[in-house]
Specification:
Helix content: under 10%
Number of helices: 4
Number of strands: 20
CATH class: Mainly Beta
Number of domains: 1
CATH superfamily: Carbohydrate-selective porin OprB
Distance between the termini: 32 Å
């Protein structure tokens, strides 16, 4: 579901928005060629994503937490400032305010495992809302091994670092800022839109309802290897906006190993990620027992059996590989224990995604991109039994279940219409939405405008 978020007055939104516009204009007028070293950074983005699905077969099901089967549209809009400054030697401070609005399908974020728009977690209505997206410190300790250039980017200032180094990130940020990187499938504003393509859809990483938290991550770069370890806060209640700051008691832990390699003289990277959540969550076995024994009419029994701290965990493998100067391939696969409810992401227990990203240089359009992918989301036996008995969880629950894995195809073409500005057409076909073979398939058509300054 879309969670309630802090409102801001229209006058405040107007002031911040006008300030954004002014700063963007000044930045655009004064920008020179990219420098090799920056002491400050001011970058901006704006994205509008509109999606529509035609009517589809509802299987004769009365909607519960179900995607509405009649034709409908949704949209998201975001404008973000990425401000940074070097506060001392090798220390960088970043602050990201963001203004967002948006309305999901079905008036609520329900009815799918792999949702179709990566921006929708931060939007909750047609009114513009201002919030602090990130506020974090990054400290680097250089350890030799030669140097390499760091390019100017969002939340990254141009400079030089040692190839062997230790990096600490601490404060308010997203787990995905550090973990589960992938050159070809990472950013729903410029690449694939579906949740299963910008991270593992079964990676239930700790975060508030918008996808951010408080915590730390340590990265150790050692030649072709990178070792990463981090702990983040989660929500007070699963999928809620309020943050649980008891990070010693309730948390999400991540450990990842990354290895750079070459195959046929083409670069690639492989990553192995293990994660663990600890929080007050309901188990599906308890929820099923309550549903069958105590209150068969209460389909949302998960809310009744959050009776103590539980641990959930998962293991994932992520690979990216350059095929040619214009073609890259990627794959992610993850398996989780699947015994407890979703903590902070979406309703998937085991996931697979893979595809290719093709640069338009192959047809003399170097700013364009073509992407093709396939995803499959699966549920654990415990979650399947609960849903089949008529139970409802946070994002899904048709009141019954004729189980099949949720299969998703996504293809997009991103057309460079100006420097750092793109218009994208996207198509997604979802078979067995919310794992129910009695419904669908669902066809989703999308247009996205994205610009960076």
């Amino acid at each position: 579901m879309i969670r309630k978020k802090q409102q801001c007055s229209l006058s405040r939104v107007a002031l911040v928005t006008s300030s954004f516009v002014f700063l963007v204009c000044v930045s655009a007028l004064s920008r020179a060629e990219t420098h090799e070293f920056e002491d400050t950074s001011a970058k901006y983005q704006t994205t509008f994503n509109w999606q529509r699905h035609p009517a589809f077969n509802n299987g004769g099901i009365t909607p519960n937490n179900s995607l509405i089967s009649k034709s409908e549209s949704m949209y998201t809009f975001s404008t973000t400032a990425h401000w940074g400054a070097r506060v001392w030697q090798d220390g960088e401070l970043y602050f990201n305010p963001e203004v967002v609005s948006g309305v999901p399908f079905s008036d609520n974020l329900v009815g799918l495992g792999g949702f179709t728009n990566g921006e929708i977690t931060r939007a909750a209505g047609t009114d513009l809302k201002l919030y602090r997206q990130r506020l974090f410190l990054r400290q680097t300790w250089n350890k030799g091994g030669g140097s390499e250039q760091v390019e100017s980017d969002f939340n990254q200032m141009a400079g030089t670092v040692d190839k062997n180094r230790i990096v600490l990130t601490a404060g308010n940020f997203s787990t995905l800022d550090v973990f589960d990187d992938n050159k070809y499938a990472k950013d729903p504003r410029t690449q694939f839109m579906n949740w299963g393509n910008w991270t593992y859809s079964s990676f239930d990483y700790a975060a508030d309802a918008r996808g951010y938290g408080w915590g730390f991550a340590v990265e150790w770069y050692l030649d072709d290897w990178v070792f990463k370890l981090g702990r983040m806060t989660g929500p007070k209640e699963p999928n809620g906006l309020a943050v649980d700051y008891q990070i010693a008691k309730h948390y999400g832990d991540q450990f990842e190993v990354e290895r750079a390699h070459t195959i046929a003289n083409r670069p690639g990277k492989a990553r192995v990620l293990v994660w663990r959540d600890r929080a007050n969550m309901a188990s599906f076995s308890d929820a099923l027992t309550y549903l069958n024994t105590y209150n068969p009419s209460d389909k949302e029994t998960i809310l009744q059996v959050r009776n103590g701290d539980k641990t959930k965990y998962g293991l994932g493998f992520n690979i990216e590989q350059e095929i040619s100067s214009n073609v890259g391939a990627f794959m992610r696969v993850m398996k989780t224990d699947g015994r407890t409810e979703t903590y902070a992401f979406t309703e998937v227990d085991n996931s697979f995604s893979g595809g290719v990203l093709i640069k338009g240089g192959a047809w003399s359009r170097p700013a364009d991109n073509l992407g093709l992918s396939f995803m499959q989301n699966q549920l654990s036996n415990d979650r399947r039994k609960y849903l089949a008995a008529g139970g409802i969880s946070f994002f899904i629950g048709d009141g019954s279940l004729s189980y099949k894995p949720e299969n998703i195809f996504e293809g997009f073409y991103s057309f460079g219409i100006y420097k750092n500005t793109w218009l994208t057409a996207d198509y997604q076909r979802i078979s067995n939405p919310a794992y129910n073979s009695a419904r669908g398939p669902v066809n989703v058509y999308a247009f996205r405008f994205h610009s960076e300054f």
